[in-house]
Amino acid sequence: MRLQRRQRFVFGHLTATCSAIILLAALGSLTLELVFVISLIAFLVLVELTAPIAVTPRWRSRLKWVIAAGLLVFAYLVIKRILEILPPGVI
């Protein structure tokens, strides 16, 4: 039963990520940054939608490290994008 829930979580995330890649490719705006951001959002939504009520399995408690790493990379991408937008003399 545990493996089945874990597999459903992984398959759900893969499905969301692959769907995002196909949609971005169809729209002509496929970039690594957009794929990462949409994949991170899908991951966070999936974590919340599949959260257990009573008991948290050990594998789910390790997801906080994946979330933290994803948010750090997201913060880096946002800062990089802000620095690209700002005029050269501001910073």
Observed structural traits:
membrane; transmembrane; 91 residues; DUF8044; transmembrane helix; 78% helix; AI-2E family transporter; mainly alpha; flat
SSE layout and pairings?
Layout: H1 2-27, H2 32-49, H3 58-61, H4 63-85
Summed up, what is this model?
This protein is mainly α. The chain contains four helices and no strands.
Biggest β-sheet description: none
Please state the structural category.
mainly alpha
Strand content: under 5%
Low-confidence stretches: none
N- to C-terminal distance: 54 Å
> How many discrete domains?
1
Q: What is the helix/strand order?
A: HHHH
Helix content: over 70%
Structural description of this entry:
This protein has 91 residues and is mostly helical. It has one domain. It is 78% helix and 0% strand. It has four helices and no strands. Helix 1 runs antiparallel to helix 2 and helix 2 runs antiparallel to helix 4.
